[in-house]
From TrEMBL, chain A:
Protein name in UniProt: Exosome complex component RRP41
Coiled coil (UniProt feature): none
Transmembrane annotation, as ranges: none
Organism placement in taxonomy: Eukaryota, Viridiplantae, Streptophyta, Embryophyta, Bryophyta
Residue span, Exoribonuclease phosphorolytic domain: 18-148, 151-216
Similarity remark: Belongs to the RNase PH family.
Organism in which the protein naturally occurs: Sphagnum troendelagicum
Top-rank taxon: Eukaryota
Alphabetized SUPFAM superfamilies for the sequence: Ribonuclease PH domain 2-like, Ribosomal protein S5 domain 2-like
Automatic annotation (TrEMBL), chain B:
Lineage: Eukaryota, Viridiplantae, Streptophyta, Embryophyta, Bryophyta
Keyword Cytoplasm belongs to the record: no
Residues of the RNB domain: 470-801
Protein name, entry field: Uncharacterized protein
Matching SMART domains: PINc (SM00670), RNB (SM00955)
Xref: InterPro entries: Dis3_CSD2 (IPR041505), NA-bd_OB-fold (IPR012340), PIN-like_dom_sf (IPR029060), PIN_dom (IPR002716), RNase_II/R (IPR001900), RNase_II/R_CS (IPR022966), RNR_Ribonuclease (IPR050180), Rrp44_CSD1 (IPR033771)
Length: 244, 942
């Protein structure tokens, strides 16, 4: 299938190095300690963070660091075909684990021993790149909750189709059968905390795709930081600490 | 800007879901005009000098492709909405359109109107997709006119009346294709304009010209929904229609739902289907069969005779007419084969056809529009009705025509003229026809391809010499042995007695992959061409000439890069070890087979080269013997060789190709190299190797051979290749040619060998039947076969010399490459054979002669003879039309008694009997029963 026309446009009109439209909001769930909504094109994810609070199951308590838990789920209405999706199927379990591990690396857990942080992520609309969107949403929600972190965690996917590296695959491109690489990075520290790809790719191509995904992540980081800054300014203004 | 496209789709399970897709609208899409002050002109194609900028609609692209391909049409804007519609409707037209767009001299530009913020439109409520797309085209045209302003005139070309009037309302200049072409003032171009019923103007005109064509000749095709429903219910059957090569009134549809081939008898039941169309077929009840046959006979009266042509001997079972089918044909009513009739066509397989116009009287007054009938060179294609204004120019030319439509009330399909190839009967023209019919690209290489060549003159550089992985073998006495006049020398040999008593034998193959890098235009082109094509008078190269004849060719006394296979062998030709390396060699002699043979035979010569030759020959003989013991078949091929006049390129003489010991020697080492390489690459890449296999023929493929052999009292054992080889050895008759004749007959029972990707089949299926080798591939001719180029890359990767290109890591890509190679290889063979046939025809044209012939098959109306001297085969008729009159008194009233079981023909008066494999004499001459289709005719002489 032709994913990029010879004129250099992808099926949805983007060029290979362009990502979809981003949109983020912070503080969308009033009850939660921190929350965020993150959209990449038609992929829409909501994340809520509770904690740090007392560990619910005593036996799970860690005496030197915080316990981070993550629950990923997909809304029944998130895909075209309405289907009830559990949060305990294999895919969800794997994603929960991936999100947790990626974020745990950023959280300064040793500052909050014997406490628990809960991260809930739900996909409201799925159109490819949910993994990256979930991590970005969760990362913003953690920042909103004021949880101490080394850096923001930012994630972006890139693929390789029709002999071209493509940034931020949508659902059609995702199901095109090519390699799909998701990275999660600490943009300030310039470190990688997540790197996932399930197919074969020669090393030189892999490097090209990886560079593209990292550049994409950095662009997302820029946007997220700005959104958080705006939100903080709004809060500071509301409290009166910041004068216009 | 962002917009969402949403539509409703039905899933496979019948559930209806809503699909929402993002659709980005951009402001950075260039208009493609070189003179545009606002847009980016780096990729622009439209010139200011052009009088008009044309915008075409979908139907113009779908129906007028031949016109668009003409040079005169340039500066065309192809909208992405049009491109998308064309792609969905007809992929081959889409590819042709893409080819025009890619050609920078044509100035076609693709404008992504669907993603441009000003030209994207949303469907209005109640607007059909077609109307919406038409509106999109108009909006885009209008945008162009406004964007470019008065500096250019933008014309919308459309044949849709409604669209045109709406365009006029919104102030767009719009014209029909006919009107536009007429305004160009080139009347001959009008021939290229396809007629279609959508053209309101043309319709009346056509009606006037053919007032008596109201009668319905063919049944209407069923509508698509009915066909789909019928296929579901099992009332209809789907399959690809194959017209019998030897009788265009009989076709077969291979249907999976029926499990065997359905016979379609007569043009009436074929119902306007062409060869290769995917059709829906309804089975006929048995009682209807005689009726359909009557139609067939009636049909035949005004068309050509059904006759088997005289031609070259078939090289394998695939070339020969299907035995069973021919028989079925003659005893049609008694057969159990299901018969059917076509009720609808699911997918057309129309392409361009080569042929000529049927001779007709010149109408008074020139330049008028005339209807003519086009007769295709391919007998399977019906005559095509075309309109032309240049009849006088075309009547004695070979032309290309394509089909536009076939209405039920027309006996023949209607089409249009595409282009002229040349004069009928001209050798070069007829050769071009063969190339076009076999889909062989004989165009010169594009500049982008030539740009990939290393700078000339090329010589081995220090870099190559110092290369770590390249072994310096210049000190070896390497030589090549090829046919006389061979310029693309891709293999060379050496043989050295080592101090330890072993022989070091090397096969050195031109290192083509050093110059052809994966992914380059050069590589793409070679991969598409697949193989060089050898015609009698010319060669169509796979790689550009500098590579083929100079840089890669292992010529004598120059240093060349090679890929070498080196063996250590004992004096008994047992392989002790094998190694592979890239190397540099310097060939000391480029011998011909004749020279090599002469050196070996001349006992006075004692130089080192001759000694090496003799050593190699001795080893080769042992290897050959061993191979035969394993069960390799020695088959004879009746190949012929022409002597060509160097000036006129006309054939002077023809004779059987002589096989010498030297040929066999070179062949033996090439086989060994191929087998060694196959083992090596399969070991490293079990799933991604390109190998060659030769399937075991099925017992019924041997049927004709066994019947013939039984008739002359020879028993053949076909249980295995070994058994067959042995029984062929024992089949010795009273004359020396008998054995060769049996071997020639055996050759045509074989299947074709094919390339395949090792991941697609299991190990036992890799077997090469003819060579009795469990593994085989092609490594030794990378200059003229692309398969060898791939194998070179695989071997280099297996040795760790280079990385395997990523596309080889994909099984489906490799399979599609090997499918293309098989297709190209087969076409190249067919074209080569057709070229020999053509030259045979030219040869006999002015010199009819008598020759000795062998009867190879007796059939109901005579027998088939084979003429060894010229390698031709054809029927001699004893009964019916065209029967030979025997000079020895017996007249045509004399009746013949045919015994197909015993394969004998006896005159009823008893004084003359023919048995299979008997020697007879025939007279060969060229006749022209139908105009412009000359053919050979064989008649009996006493």
């Amino acid at each position: 299938m032709e994913f990029i026309s010879p004129e250099g446009l992808r099926l949805d009109g983007r060029r290979p190095h362009e990502m979809r439209q981003l949109h983020a909001e912070v503080g969308v769930v009033a009850k939660a300690d921190g929350s965020a909504l993150f959209e990449m094109g038609n992929t829409k994810v909501i994340a809520a963070v509770y904690g740090p609070h007392e560990v619910q199951i005593h036996s799970q308590q860690l005496h030197d660091q915080a316990l981070v838990r993550c629950e990923y789920s997909m809304a029944a209405f998130s895909t075209g075909e309405r289907r009830r999706r559990g949060k305990s199927d294999r895919r969800a379990m794997e994603l929960s684990l991936v999100i947790r591990q990626t974020l745990e690396a950023a959280i300064l857990t040793h500052l909050m021993p014997r406490s628990q942080i809960d991260i809930f992520v739900q996909v409201l609309q799925a159109d490819g790149g949910t993994r990256a969107a979930c991590i970005n949403a969760a990362s913003m929600a953690l920042a909103d909750a004021g949880i101490p972190m080394r850096d923001l965690v930012v994630s972006c996917a890139a693929g390789y189709l029709n002999s071209t590296p493509l940034l931020d695959l949508n659902y059609i491109e995702d199901s095109g059968g090519g390699p799909d690489l998701t990275v999660g990075i600490f943009p300030k520290l310039d470190k990688v905390s997540l790197l996932q790809m399930d197919s074969k790719l020669s090393t030189d191509l892999f490097e090209k795709v990886l560079t593209l995904a990292m550049e994409g992540s950095k662009a997302i980081a820029e946007y997220m930081r700005q959104m958080l800054l705006e939100n903080t300014q709004k809060l500071a203004f509301a409290r009166g600490t910041l004068k216009r | 800007m962002l917009s969402n496209k949403s539509f409703v789709r039905k899933t496979r399970h019948g559930r209806v879901i809503k699909v929402v897709r993002e659709h980005y609208l951009r402001d950075d899409i260039s208009c493609g005009a070189l003179f545009c002050p606002q847009c980016d002109t780096s990729k622009a194609a439209l010139r200011q000098t052009a009088e008009n900028i044309l915008v075409v609609d979908t139907n113009v692209v779908l129906h007028q492709m031949d016109l668009l391909e003409n040079e005169i049409i340039s500066d065309v804007v192809v909208l992405s909405v049009v491109l998308e519609e064309v792609k969905n409707k007809n992929l081959s037209l889409y590819n042709r359109l893409r080819a025009i767009i890619d050609n920078p001299t044509r100035h076609f530009f693709v404008f992504a109107n669907e993603h441009h913020k000003d030209t994207y439109i949303k469907a209005l409520a109640g607007e059909t997709p077609n109307d919406r797309n038409d509106r999109a085209i108009r909006v885009a045209t209008q945008w162009y006119q406004e964007h470019l302003g008065p500096s250019a005139k933008v014309i919308l070309l459309t044949n849709d009346m409604d669209n045109r009037s709406k365009a006029r309302e919104s102030g767009i200049i719009s014209e029909t294709v006919q009107a536009y072409v007429q305004s160009l003032g080139k009347p001959e171009l009008l021939d290229l304009v396809a007629r279609s019923d959508a053209m309101d103007i043309d319709k009346n005109e056509a009606e006037d010209l053919r007032p008596n064509k109201k009668a319905v000749v063919y049944a209407e095709h069923k509508v698509m929904s009915e066909i789909t429903a019928g296929l579901h219910q099992g009332r209809y059957h789907q399959g690809k229609l194959r017209v019998n090569r030897y009788n265009p009134f009989v076709a077969y549809v291979g249907s999976e739902s029926v499990g065997e081939e359905i016979l379609i008898n007569g043009r009436q039941d074929m119902n306007r289907a062409f060869d290769g169309d995917v059709v829906a077929v309804e089975l006929l009840p048995q009682s209807l069969l005689p009726g359909s046959q009557a139609v067939k006979i009636a049909d035949r009266d005004d068309e050509e005779e059904e006759e088997e042509p005289v031609g070259l001997v078939p090289a394998s079972a695939d070339d020969a007419p299907q035995e069973s089918q021919v028989q079925e044909n003659s005893q049609l009513t008694g057969s159990n084969r299901p018969c059917g009739r076509v009720i609808g066509i699911i997918k057309r397989n129309w392409r361009q056809y080569c042929g000529s116009l049927e001779p007709m009287k010149m109408p008074g007054g020139s330049g008028g529009n005339v209807h003519a009938l086009f007769v295709s060179a391919d007998r399977r294609i019906p005559k095509i009705r075309i309109q032309t204004r240049q009849l006088a120019n075309l009547i004695d030319k070979r032309i290309i025509a394509s089909v536009d439509s076939w209405e039920p009330n027309s006996r023949y399909p209607s089409g249009h003229y595409v282009r002229t190839i040349g004069d009928i009967g001209d050798r070069a023209t007829e050769s071009d026809v063969l190339l076009i019919e076999n889909d062989i690209n004989s165009r010169p290489f594009a500049d982008a391809v030539l740009a990939c060549l290393p700078p000339l003159p090329w010589s081995v550089s220090d870099q190559d010499l110092l290369h770590q992985q390249r072994q310096d073998l210049r000190n070896l006495c390497v030589f090549s042995v090829d046919p006389i006049g061979c310029k693309d020398i891709d293999d060379a040999l050496h043989c050295k007695l080592m101090p330890n008593g072993l022989y070091e034998v090397g096969v050195h193959i031109a290192d083509v992959t050093n110059f052809v890098h994966p992914g380059t235009p050069l590589d793409e082109e070679a991969s598409q061409r697949g193989t060089s094509v050898y015609m009698v008078e010319r060669r169509i190269d796979m790689l550009p000439k500098p590579l083929t004849e100079d840089i890669c060719s292992l010529r004598a006394d120059v240093e060349r890069l090679a890929f070498s296979v080196l063996w250590e062998m004992t004096a008994e030709a047992e392989i002790v070890s094998v190694s592979f390396t890239k190397s540099i060699i310097k060939s000391s002699a480029a011998l011909s087979y004749v020279e090599a043979q002469a050196r070996m035979d001349d006992s006075r010569l004692e130089d080192a080269l001759t000694a090496d030759l003799r050593n190699m020959n001795r080893l080769a003989k042992i290897m050959r013997q061993r191979r035969i013991e394993r069960g390799a078949l020695t088959l004879a091929s009746p190949e012929v060789k022409f002597e060509i006049d160097t000036e006129t390129h006309d054939p002077l003489d023809v004779g059987m190709y002589q096989v010498r010991e030297a040929n066999q020697m070179v062949e033996e080492f090439m086989l060994a190299a191929n087998i060694s390489v196959a083992e090596k690459i399969l070991k490293h890449f079990p799933a991604y190797s390109l190998l060659r296999r030769h399937p075991v023929p099925t017992p019924n493929m041997f049927e004709p051979l066994l019947r013939t052999a039984a008739a002359v009292g020879v028993h053949l054992d076909i249980s295995s290749s070994k058994a067959l080889a042995d029984s062929l050895d024992h089949a010795v008759g009273d004359d020396p040619y008998f054995n060769k004749l049996i071997r020639i007959l055996a050759t045509r029972c074989m299947t074709q060998a094919v390339y395949f990707c090792s991941g697609e089949l299991s190990l036992p299926e890799f077997h090469h039947y003819g060579l009795a080798a469990p593994l085989y591939t092609h490594f030794t001719s990378p200059i003229r076969r692309y398969a060898d180029v791939i194998v070179h890359r695989l071997l280099a990767a297996a040795l760790g010399l280079s990385n395997l290109p990523p596309q080889f890591r994909d099984r489906s890509t490799l399979t599609s490459i090997s499918d293309n190679l098989n297709y190209r290889h087969r076409n190249a063979q067919m074209a080569g054979r057709a070229s020999v046939e053509l030259h045979t025809l030219i040869f006999f044209k002015n010199r009819p002669m008598d020759a000795e012939a062998r009867i190879v098959k007796i059939q109901s109306n005579g027998f088939i003879v084979f003429v060894p001297k010229f390698g031709i085969e054809g029927p001699v008729y004893l009964i019916g039309k065209g029967a030979s009159k025997i000079a020895s008194g017996s007249t045509s009233e004399c009746s013949w008694v045919v015994d197909e079981e015993m394969q004998t023909v006896r005159a009823s008066d008893g004084n003359c009997t023919f048995r299979v494999l008997d020697v007879t004499h025939v007279h060969i001459e060229v006749v022209e029963p139908q105009p412009n289709r000359p053919k050979l005719q064989l008649t009996l002489v006493s």
